[in-house]
Write a structure and sequence with these properties.
This protein is α+β, with helices and mostly antiparallel strands and 94 residues long. The chain has 3 helices and 3 strands; from the N terminus they run αβββαα. The chain has helices spanning 12-22, 60-65, 67-86; strands at 27-32, 35-41, 48-52. A 3-stranded antiparallel sheet has the order 1-2-3, with helices on one face. Strand 2 (35-41) and strand 3 (48-52) form a beta hairpin. 15% of the residues are buried.
Length: 94
Amino acid sequence: MNCPWCDFAGTLRPLHAHLCDAHPDEVSFETQGSRHAYAVTCPVCGAGYEQTIKPRMDDPSFVEEYRREIRLVAFDMLLNHLLGEHGGQYGTDN
């Protein structure tokens, strides 16, 4: 699979780690009152995915403490989208 933002190529697991390490700013975090959410947008088609962060929506330190893990979840959603919607372009045989 190819990274949608740079020339990195690898199998799914290394790509997943690469996205988190090399492109962390592609996952945005939002806080409205006690609600925390993350969002990621497909760079190919612009489709967006946003999810409320659970279970500790009322704990402000939770997002900071688990920021990397939350990014991994967001990039997992993006990879599922890329494979499902743009599979041929992203080497589904890897």
